[in-house]
Specification:
By secondary structure, this protein is an alpha+beta fold. The chain has 14 helices and eight strands. 28% of the residues are buried.
């Protein structure tokens, strides 16, 4: 038997869609079609706008240096550097395809004073100031020189016939070449036409190098990105803790307030029902008593869904067993957990509860199994069923919400659900145990027969 053909299958030319270059450097890597793209003119626009911003920066620098004699211009110089840095980061999209990210942190307290104190302490503020001085004194003349050589020289040569026609006798092109006839003028124009595309290549390369320097000074560095990621992680943890505390407050207010009033109302209606003589009044009281009892049951279920008391009192293990017992589908439980941090227990419980709810509503399973362990510094909760499979978060099964809840705690959600089943949902949350195992292990026990 001949070996299988491992060559790349033929793809029709019409189906080969090249990836569009995202930066000027990537466009330069394809010089064959470079001049047919917008990148050369984007480089020209980058350098031209650099000349404009550089002239403005020079004027502002000179004015503020005058004020700095009375110590008023020093903070204004820093602020001017911050403002120019914002403009320069935006201008980078002309040659890099996208603007540089803002490296500045958000002040923890409101007000101009907190903002100024933070900016003075940030390293990027001083890099922006250095870039502003460099841009106002060195970089914009460099941009102007590159534009004059790469675009101005060819354009002046191409305008030789117009200059000669305007004078009628002779024209000095580019202040160096004397043109005394139309053949010489058109020869100079032809030279300009040749030089323009040839000079656009190095002009774009110099614009890319110029942008790389700006990005090195103005874009966030690795250490700054790590700090910002740390701030975001801490902020997410605080939000998760605040969210969990709010859930507990709502549960407590409903349990101690509305539920107790409904219990008293139900008892009052029950007593009135038995005290009333037989007749229409007694029937209405009986109906109201039944409705109050139904509302009380629904409120208790709502409170249990917000934050079950068993989770706060006995931990995640007991809460998962309770959730399995409430499921319509028979569920085997294998749970052995210590007490864990409150946000972790809450997230683990709602993952297990939502997974069991999906089993009841969507899977058509005859049986399910929930397993929960704390091992290797992480909580692992797995829910498996023998249903039809095909679980898809895009169909609104609540899986996206579970993944978002776990992401707040740096957790992960894994779903294996081929069509035809079985389905396995696995959640893993890194955490440390607060105590030894506080819930009995119920290996392969059936929560509902």
């Amino acid at each position: 038997m001949p070996p299988p053909d491992r060559r790349t299958p033929h793809i029709p030319h019409a189906l080969r869609i090249p990836h569009a270059p995202r930066t000027a450097w990537q466009a330069l890597a394809r010089p064959r079609g470079f001049l047919r793209t917008a990148w050369p003119w984007r480089a020209v626009a980058f350098l031209a706008s650099g000349v404009v911003s550089g002239v403005v920066a020079l004027a502002v620098l000179l004015v503020l240096l005058g004020f700095s004699v009375v110590l008023v211009g020093l903070p204004l110089l820093l602020l001017a550097g911050v403002a120019l840095g914002r403009v320069e980061r935006w201008r980078l999209r002309l040659v890099d395809g996208e603007a540089a990210a803002d490296p500045h942190r958000v002040p923890e307290a409101p007000g101009l004073g907190a903002w100024l104190r933070l900016r003075v302490r940030e390293q990027v503020t001083w890099r922006e100031f250095a870039h502003a001085v460099l841009h106002a004194t060195v970089l914009w003349p460099f941009d102007l020189a590159v534009l004059a050589l790469g675009v101005g020289l060819p354009v002046m040569l191409m305008s030789a016939p117009l200059q000669f026609a305007a004078d009628g006798h002779e024209a000095k092109v580019v202040k160096a070449c004397l043109v005394t006839s139309y053949p010489q003028a058109f020869a100079a124009a032809a030279l300009g036409l040749v030089l323009l595309p040839l000079l656009l290549l190095p002009l774009t390369a110099l614009a890319g190098a110029r942008a790389a320097l700006g990005r090195a000074l103005l874009a966030p560095r690795e250490a700054e990105l790590r700090d910002r990621i740390g701030e975001v992680t801490a902020s997410r943890a605080r939000l998760a803790a605040a969210f969990e505390a709010e859930r507990r407050r709502i549960e407590r207010d409903l349990h101690d307030g509305a539920q107790q009033r409904l219990v008293a109302l139900t008892m009052t209606l029950g007593l009135a029902r038995y005290d009333a003589p037989p007749g229409p009044l007694a029937d209405q009281l009986a109906k109201a008593h039944a409705e109050a009892g139904q509302v009380l049951t629904e409120l208790r279920e709502l409170i249990h869904g917000i934050h079950p008391q068993v989770l706060a009192d006995y931990g995640l293990g007991a809460a998962l067993v309770d959730a399995a017992d409430r499921a319509s589908t028979p569920v085997d439980t294998d749970v052995d957990l210590p007490r864990l941090p409150g946000p972790v227990e809450s997230a683990g419980y709602f993952v297990g509860r939502e997974a069991l709810a999906n089993v009841d509503r969507h899977s058509g399973a005859a049986r399910a199994r929930i397993t929960a362990r704390h091992r290797d510094g992480a909580l692992v909760v797995s829910v498996e069923d023998d249903g039809r499979g095909g679980a898809d978060s895009a169909r609104g099964s609540g899986l996206t919400g579970l993944a978002d809840r776990l992401a707040v705690l740096d957790g992960t959600l894994t779903i294996i659900s081929p069509p035809g089943g079985p389905t396995l949902l696995r959640a893993e949350i890194p955490c440390s145990a607060l105590s030894e195992s506080s819930s009995p292990r119920t290996a392969s026990s059936s929560a509902r027969g």
